Amino acid sequence: MKKRFCLYMMACAAVFLSACSGKEVTGVYDDNGWRPNNPIEVVATAGAGGGWDTTARMAAQTFEKEGIIEERLPVINKPGGGGAVGWAYMTRKEGNPHNIFVTSPPILLVPLNGQSKYGYEDFTPLANMIADYAAFAVRADAKWDTLNDLFDDMKKDPSSVSVVGVSSPGSMDHIQFIKIARAAGVDVTKIKYVSDQDGGALTQLLNGSVDVYSAGTSETVEQVRSGKIKVLGITAPERLEGETLEDFPTAVEQGIDETFVNWRGFFGPAGMDEQQIQYYQEKFKQLNDSPEWKKIREKYGWNELYMAGDEYEQFLDEQNEEMYAILEELKLLR
């Protein structure tokens, strides 16, 4: 009884201090820690239909459907700048734990190449949820049948082969190709990369404007099934499971000792306290372990890659150092 009275008095004090300071009370604290008391806004820092948007919507849907989180989780899109517009939006939510967003390697790459003044260190990492991988595809009638065929030509003249992706130079579609090509012995400083952020990258490949399409594995499946393109290699450490996906050879099995993971996780704004962070880590762990989320991973060809806490923070720091080194070699640091 005494403990409950103390908690009640603390809550009253918090409300009083909040009123005096003009700040909104965000969430409820009780014997079980913190919990939200308003809908949780889930931000996809891109337009509808892409990887960030799909991950945000599937996570929000599963949280609600499985009753893991009782509050609603509306998803909003904040596209632009390869994520930069959404990250700027999230900086204005500092201290409000009712706002989270999904992100991936561009939150490292885009700030490093000077296209955003906000990076991963400006937010609160909560949990990584999945791993996706890159695929390098060519037209079905292209002369190359393996990555080694392609890279043999690029070793002779790197600029003779054009590579297209939807991300800007120095961001993910560019860097995932650079990382594998560099391990194969190509002079990556001379690679011709074409950025098509308007959604026409695959069209450019099919009409012969470019030679290679650097994309996510799931973005190539339908065109492979229709016989229009072929995948020379993927960046996963081993072959993926699933119809068609299982046919994609890895760079590793072709003797190229390198991988690239498109990790995808959730962050909150700066200023979250330990109890708020713990709440989300526990909820994302429940999501990761749920049968429904496993079905979603299988549907989209995502691999499990759950990380939280110190493990996730260390992973991000290591990834940032690696991306820094690649951009420095390409002279794309800003």
How would you sum up this structure, described in words?
The protein has 334 residues and is α/β, with parallel strands linked by helices. It folds into two domains: 33-131 and 262-329, Bordetella uptake gene, domain 1 (D-Maltodextrin-Binding Protein, domain 2), CATH 3.40.190.150; 133-261, D-Maltodextrin-Binding Protein, domain 2 (3-Layer(aba) Sandwich), CATH 3.40.190. It is 39% helix and 20% strand. It contains eleven helices and twelve strands. Strands 3, 4, 5, 6, 7, 8, 9, 10, 11 and 12 form a ten-stranded mixed β-sheet that branches. Strands 1-2 form a two-stranded antiparallel sheet. Strand 1 (28-30) and strand 2 form a beta hairpin. The radius of gyration is 22 Å and the shape is globular.
Identify the notable features of this structure and list them briefly.
D-Maltodextrin-Binding Protein, domain 2; 2 domains; 12 strands; single chain; 11 helices; 334 residues; two-stranded antiparallel sheet; alpha/beta; ten-stranded mixed sheet; 39% helix
CATH class of the largest domain: Alpha Beta
CATH topology of the largest domain: D-Maltodextrin-Binding Protein, domain 2
Helix content: 25-40%
**SS class:** alpha/beta
User: Which oligomerization state do the chains in this entry correspond to?
Assistant: single chain
Poorly predicted runs of 5 or more residues: 1-23
Strand segment count: 12
Give the overall silhouette: globular
State the fourth-level CATH superfamily of the largest domain.
Answer: Bordetella uptake gene, domain 1
Number of domains: 2
Strand content: 15-25%
CATH architecture of the largest domain: 3-Layer(aba) Sandwich
User: If you average the pLDDT, what whole number results?
Assistant: 92
Pfam families: TctC
Protein name: Tripartite tricarboxylate transporter substrate binding protein
Organism: Bacillus mesophilum
Keywords: Signal
